[in-house]
Write a structure and sequence with these properties.
By secondary structure, the chain is an alpha/beta fold. Helix content is 39%, strand content 26%. Helix 4 packs antiparallel against helix 5 and helix 7 runs antiparallel to helix 8.
């Protein structure tokens, strides 16, 4: 830098108003200043603006005087800080550090939640660069069941112990009823293209096999096997064979009746509308049944369905299946296959599921989200959503209410 140049950081705060940034930068433009960095935030119409600039002549004093008068005229506060060349170059050098996005999601965000999360960030010697709100401002009289709050923290640095940080976040999420996503802020996070969902207890609030079992009069037997399988206590394939054998003789008309009355998970239709609008490819990878997966595909526009095919003879279930069982291993294989078909890097994929048989898929995807999951699944997942419905997936992807018109 030339010997006549100076680097100056100005910090402006006060009531926001149209034309404020324009008026201040016009002064810098008149003096041919070069802007090195600029950032602005607005909270409840109160502005916080920072501009780091370099003078091209030895006229820093004159620029600061004009800025001071303009700030007085605009009724805002302004502070000046000179920055040395060495300080600036040190700051530039730190920009190459790892960057992460930490998303906090819940019904309401409390000071305790923010304090505890930022304490973990500080313990790992990371710096918070920016904080932005993804959800709208909550009304004071809003029904708490309908509220949702989400903020996104952009942090920089290298964690001292990344695994401990992740586990601390997961523990905190359970203790404080808060969902926390911790992701690397890289090119893949900004270009997710394929998202794969489990069906039962994820997209719909039931296990279809349990519904079928109720109609067949073996509800208690099948439900006990289902719950044991989802907890990871018994092998999924073994439990699958045991359960469908109990459905032998059930009339296929029962399936249509169940399909028409599937209880959608909160936020499903809204989430699918947004994902389709944004160009995502979507898939159902389910240990449930193709019949119900295709029903959801037709109703909501999923691109792919892979599930289990029940064998039917004379309009009745035989208690057997056709083809390979879609178990946990198969779900992960299908995720990789679909990524190849859609020509996307595996890091650009997302997987969402709730059961133990979803863990291979969740760990394979670029972003694996345990959704209202069993304790064992949540403990082994990198991200989890337990406080709100499926629209939480959108916030973990970085979408904001304001430009997606999510209501």
């Amino acid at each position: 830098m030339g010997s006549n140049s100076e680097i100056i950081l100005i910090s402006i705060s006060g009531p926001d108003k149209p034309g404020l940034t324009s008026a201040l930068t016009e002064i810098l433009a008149f003096h041919n200043a070069i802007i090195l960095d600029i950032g602005q935030a607005d909270i409840h119409h109160y502005l916080s603006l920072g501009i780091l600039f370099r003078t091209t002549e030895h006229n820093g004093g004159e620029i600061m005087k004009e800025l001071l008068f303009k700030a007085y005229e605009l009724d805002v506060n302004i502070k000046f800080k000179p920055v040395t060349d060495a300080e600036y170059m040190d700051w530039v050098g730190r920009q190459g550090k790892n960057r992460y996005i930490i998303t906090l999601l819940g019904k309401r965000l409390t000071a305790r939640q923010i304090a505890d999360v930022t304490k973990i960030i500080a313990q790992q010697e990371l710096n918070i660069d920016a904080i932005q709100r993804l959800t709208g401002r909550p009304a004071l009289d809003e029904d708490e069941e309908q509220t949702k709050s989400c903020v996104e923290l952009s942090v920089r640095g290298t964690p001292l112990d990344k695994e401990k940080m992740q586990s601390d976040f997961m523990k905190l999420s359970t203790d404080l009823e808060l969902d926390i996503s911790f992701q690397e802020d890289n090119m893949y996070r900004r270009s997710r293209r394929l998202i794969c969902f489990d069906m039962d207890s994820t997209l719909i609030q039931t296990e279809v096999i349990d519904e079928l079992a109720e109609k067949a009069g073996v509800g208690d037997k099948v439900r006990a096997i289902t719950e044991s399988a989802m907890r990871g206590e018994i092998d999924f394939s073994q439990s699958f064979k045991e359960r469908i054998a109990l459905l032998k003789g059930l009339d296929v008309n029962v399936m249509e009746d169940i399909a028409k009355n599937l209880p959608y998970t909160e936020g499903l239709e809204r989430m699918m509308r947004v994902l389709k609008k944004m160009g995502f490819k979507t898939a159902i990878l389910s240990g449930g049944f193709t019949y119900f997966g295709k029903y959801l595909k037709d109703k909501l526009g999923f691109d792919y369905v892979y599930a289990n095919e029940l064998e039917i003879q004379d309009n009745k279930l035989t208690g057997k299946y056709v083809g390979d069982i879609v178990d946990g291993k198969r779900k992960a294989e299908l995720l990789r296959l679909l990524a190849q078909v859609e020509n996307v890097d595996i890091a650009q994929t997302v997987a969402v599921g709730d059961g133990a048989n979803d863990l291979p898929m969740l760990s394979t995807a670029g972003l694996g989200i345990a959704f209202h999951a069993k304790p064992k699944v949540k403990a082994n997942a990198q991200q989890s959503i337990s406080t709100i419905g499926l629209e939480g997936v959108l916030y973990f992807l970085g979408f904001k209410d304001s430009y997606l018109n999510i209501k």
